[in-house]
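Okay, can you check this protein?
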Amino acid sequence: YGSAYSNWAIQLLNEVYGINEIAITGVEAEAVKLELSNHYIPNKIVLGGVGSNLPLLKGKESNDTKIYVCRNKVCQLPVKTVEEALLNIK
């Protein structure tokens, strides 16, 4: 079963490199999410918006657009641009 090998490879990547949790807050969250999608970032979960009930976004509500790069539900300091977020991911 050839597809099983790719599933195991994906699982190995997740275990070795972890998953990037990218939280975007503020009124421009959707635009930032679209800009971020132009970059290849493997193993990522992107979430965000103006207001949210998601645990990762608790206490991060803001009108200013901020990007949080997190791993294992622990976030780095927020940044304001996609370029800065990409530096935090790499």
Q: What stands out?
A: The radius of gyration is 14 Å. Residues 2-17 form the longest helix (16 residues). The mean pLDDT is 85.
